[in-house]
Task: inverse folding
């Protein structure tokens, strides 16, 4: 490939390019460093790698070709590959709402806790003194030195008469940030702090760091850091929250496979996920194909009208149609139950009965998904040679027989990769489950949120984001299970694609 | 031509139309119901398909105006639907353009520039695109939680974060556009190279103008995909003013505050534009879809 020397438009000045590259690289490096100092070395390292790759590829002429591809590859690696791997890695940690922080932050949080000594608590008022303020303690008749209340400060108190002009309560509250940083020293040498909106008191820290990985509680108990559980523990083994994130090996997986309250629902959800995906693909495909065959019939009129109306469910944004169905199926005032009651006198419990809920999920999904299959089938049906069908019909085969012996075998191979992709899509069809049933009704006797219509993806989502526990670790572990299944499906699709492609190039239509 | 008896043919025709009409009635039922509900009084009321006392209350509220009932009671809009719509369109357009830029450039290089490991990279992209973002939600949450401490604009509850994640949806589109570029005659690049064009100039002045039709398809496809996204947006966006339509729409059917009528009007208002875009574009979209995508 030639360089820019003979190009028609002037080549960009090299120093300008170097300048821009340098500025962007510097920005990335700064972000990487900030993340590192915030206790996120992993994210920092990734940004560092990005900065390096960027400077190398755009700074040097040698990697000219790579410049075109770097943005795409970087986006895919950073926002798909890395998050998937990172989620699975979280599956090996105890990351949850109890173990949310890093170790350093946990120590900070614990040592910043304090208890107020009730006996020393006394009200205060603030008096303005020029630009500065004085604190007045009416109960003990003490007045502080002037203090600016803009930074941490320690000032001494001395007996004095009550100042003339005390600030209103409202104005004093506006100073609370400065008051929080203030330490007052009584003439006896006792230090008191702001202990609330109205009072100052002697404040004792609840925990003091007394050594590496060791905290002493105000009652004298020594707590040691346990890096296997991610908690500070008393000598008796009691855990003091909050904890920090640690690697707990395969403990989450052991919980999934051994804990009775988790294994049962997980297994049931696993089976239902497969059933749901398979049923969805089968019915969407069957309905779509049937409609496509009818629409292809030469004697049928009004084809364009039928086609547009039949595509409609696909054209409407799915999050809207799913919510519409949620309302229509509503047990108490949904229109579907009203009609069923008027016609047959029944009111099915669509949301509280497990089997009905599952049926409803599949019905809605087929409604959403058949037009896609129909559109694809119409394309593939056109490729089936007409004379094959005619020959079979002349032999006396019925049209049903012609369909199953001639048409179907010809369109299935090119359809296969798309069916596999549809299976993978439905396997992770979080939106449908989440917006329609939220996984409900709940499976009885579980220790985690798990529902009869939950699929693995919605199960993971609920574990991580939908209840107070925020069990990111357990969710990560289940993600690994999904990952393995998706990987197998993905590979199968890859092989099927290859086969379909070689078939197309092998025998020209 | 296979000769069929006229009588058989007529029966078959009646059967076909009859089947299609019954099927269509079932399929269209939700749409008709929602239309009817949006004009009914109140949020629980039931009634016939054509409302007895049609009211514009839900529609006025959906457009963000206060509604004054006959008895003088003033109702305020429950949720900012138009703001959510604007958020969705903003995020969708910016992310769509970003995806378009990255996918077109990458597709060009995969199609034309000689590189080591190109085939492996393409296979890798194909395999990776099968993994849905739902697999990575926990990490996405953790990543943007951490990034937010460096710069709040990159953190949770920010549209920038959402757009960055959406950019990862390029893989499939790289494939689509690459297929298009592969079908362009090599003589064109040779001619450009002889005239002294750099690969970048060949891309900018030769390939880009040719790719406009396929780029339109990719843009509409990715735009619709982003508008429809629920999982990522629901994890990243928390505050009502930042929500996209997909996240916000759910609030209407809360168990404790069930706004069925208001939802119906808001759903039609927000769903209609996207539906129309899709129906206009669908003839071109089908080909792009059959390359292996499933609408999300």
Result:
């Amino acid at each position: 490939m030639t360089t820019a020397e003979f190009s028609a438009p002037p080549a960009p000045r090299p120093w300008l390019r170097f300048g821009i590259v340098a500025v962007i690289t510097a920005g990335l490096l700064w972000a990487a460093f900030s993340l590192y100092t915030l206790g996120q070395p992993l994210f920092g390292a990734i940004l560092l790698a990005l900065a390096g790759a960027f400077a190398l590829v755009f700074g040097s002429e040698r990697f000219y070709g790579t410049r075109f591809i770097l943005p795409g590859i970087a986006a895919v690696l950073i926002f798909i590959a890395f998050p998937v791997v990172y989620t699975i890695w979280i599956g090996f940690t105890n990351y949850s709402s109890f173990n949310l922080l890093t170790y350093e932050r946990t120590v900070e949080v614990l040592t910043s806790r304090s208890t107020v000594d009730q006996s020393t608590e006394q009200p205060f008022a603030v008096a303005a003194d020029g630009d500065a303020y004085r604190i007045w303690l009416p109960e003990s008749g003490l007045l502080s030195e002037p203090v600016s209340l803009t930074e941490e400060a320690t000032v001494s108190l001395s007996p004095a008469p009550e100042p003339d002009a005390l600030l209103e309560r409202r104005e004093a509250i506006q100073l609370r940030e400065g008051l929080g940083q203030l330490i007052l020293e009584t003439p006896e040498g006792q230090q008191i702090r702001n202990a609330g909106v109205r009072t100052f008191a002697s404040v004792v820290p609840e925990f003091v760091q007394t050594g590496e990985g060791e905290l002493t509680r105000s009652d004298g108990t020594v707590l040691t850091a346990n890096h296997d559980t991610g908690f500070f523990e008393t000598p008796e083994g009691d855990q003091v929250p909050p904890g920090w994130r640690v690697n707990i090996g395969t403990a989450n997986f052991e919980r999934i496979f051994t804990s009775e309250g988790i294994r049962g629902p997980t297994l049931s959800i696993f089976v239902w996920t497969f059933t749901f995906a398979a049923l969805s693909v089968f019915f969407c495909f069957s309905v779509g194909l049937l409609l496509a065959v009818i629409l292809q019939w030469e004697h049928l009129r009004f084809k364009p009208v039928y086609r547009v109306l039949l595509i409609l469910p696909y054209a409407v944004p799915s999050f809207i149609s799913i919510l519409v169905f949620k309302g229509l199926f509503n047990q108490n005032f949904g229109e579907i139950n009203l009609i069923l009651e008027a016609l047959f006198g029944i009111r099915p419990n669509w949301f509280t009965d497990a089997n009905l809920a599952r049926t409803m999920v599949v019905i809605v999904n087929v409604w959403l998904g058949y037009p896609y299959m129909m559109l694809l089938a119409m394309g593939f049906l056109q490729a089936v040679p007409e004379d094959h069908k005619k020959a079979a019909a002349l032999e006396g085969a019925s049209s049903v027989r012609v369909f199953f012996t001639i048409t179907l075998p010809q369109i299935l191979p090119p359809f296969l990769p798309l069916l596999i992709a549809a299976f993978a899509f439905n396997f992770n069809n979080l939106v449908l489950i989440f917006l329609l049933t939220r996984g409900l009704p709940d499976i009885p006797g579980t220790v985690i949120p798990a529902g009869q219509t939950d699929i693995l993806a919605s199960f993971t989502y609920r574990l991580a984001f939908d209840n107070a526990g925020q069990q990111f670790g357990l969710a990560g572990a289940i993600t690994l299970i999904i990952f393995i299944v998706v990987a197998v499906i993905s590979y199968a699709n890859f092989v099927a694609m290859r086969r379909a492609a070689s078939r197309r190039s092998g025998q020209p239509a | 031509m296979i000769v069929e008896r006229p009588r058989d043919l007529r029966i078959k025709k009646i059967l076909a139309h009859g089947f299609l009409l019954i099927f269509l009635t079932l399929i269209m039922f939700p749409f008709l119901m929602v239309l009817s509900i949006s004009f009914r009084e109140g949020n629980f009321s039931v009634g016939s398909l054509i409302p007895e006392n049609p009211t514009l209350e839900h529609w006025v509220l959906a457009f963000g105006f206060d509604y004054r009932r006959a008895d003088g009671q003033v109702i305020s809009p429950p949720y900012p639907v138009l703001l959510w719509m604007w958020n969705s369109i903003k995020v969708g357009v910016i992310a769509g353009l970003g995806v378009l830029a990255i996918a077109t450039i990458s597709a060009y290089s995969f199609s034309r520039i000689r590189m080591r490991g190109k085939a492996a990279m393409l296979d890798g992209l194909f395999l990776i695109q099968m993994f849905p973002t739902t697999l990575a939600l926990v990490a996405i949450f953790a990543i943007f939680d951490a990034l937010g401490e460096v710069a709040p604009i990159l953190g949770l509850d920010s549209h920038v974060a959402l757009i960055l994640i959406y950019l990862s949806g390029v893989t499939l589109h790289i494939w689509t556009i690459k297929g298009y570029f592969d079908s362009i005659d090599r003589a064109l690049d040779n001619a450009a190279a002889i005239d002294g064009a750099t690969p970048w100039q060949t891309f900018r002045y030769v390939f880009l103008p040719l790719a406009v039709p396929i780029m339109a398809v990719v843009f509409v496809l990715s735009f619709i995909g982003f508008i429809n996204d629920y999982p990522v947006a629901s994890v990243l966006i928390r505050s009502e003013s930042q929500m996209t339509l997909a996240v916000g729409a759910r609030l209407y059917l809360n168990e404790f505050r069930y706004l069925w009528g208001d939802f119906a009007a808001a759903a039609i208002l927000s769903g209609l534009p996207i539906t129309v875009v899709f129906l206009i574009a669908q003839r071109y979209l089908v080909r792009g879809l059959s390359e292996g995508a499933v609408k999300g």
Observations:
- Confidence is low (pLDDT under 50) at residues 291-296 of chain B.
- Strands of chain B lie at 67-68, 74-75, 253-254, 257-258.
